[in-house]
Design a protein that fits this description.
Length: about 130
């Protein structure tokens, strides 16, 4: 690790720092200098991690997945393609969206907005 630029401190009263190193997400206790928890983050795109559940929602191979804090991986979509965009707010300015995959507060649901062409095909870059 060359920099702590992406380091975050998800628990205000604990000595844990969240690091993403070599496609691994980990919580390191900066006082004891030991890894407290880790999770593979290989090939994740548009990942959103929840500090309470330690679950992460992300896109892989154009589909939406959730990996719970214990390492159980669940695929939520199977229709992903270049015509269906998961994990990215395509029209964020129009709708006030600033996050990609929103892990719900109870940590049991993922918020998902789906938008795409009505009859299939590709949308023009300029949109409507």
């Amino acid at each position: 690790m060359r920099s702590l630029y992406s380091a975050t401190f998800p628990y205000p009263n604990q000595t844990l720092v969240l690091l993403n190193v070599n496609q691994t997400r980990m919580l390191v206790n900066w006082k004891t200098k030991k890894v407290d928890w880790k999770q593979e983050a290989k090939a994740e795109i548009a990942a959103d991690w929840n500090a309470q559940s330690r679950a992460v929602a992300f896109v892989k191979d154009d589909n939406l997945y959730v990996n719970d804090g214990k390492g159980v991986l669940k695929q939520l979509s199977t229709d992903g393609s270049r015509n269906i965009v998961y994990g990215q707010s395509v029209h964020r300015d129009e709708f006030g969206i600033y996050k990609r995959n929103v892990l719900e507060q109870r940590r049991t649901e993922v918020g998902l907005l789906q938008n795409g062409p009505i009859h299939g095909g590709r949308l023009p870059f300029g949109g409507r």
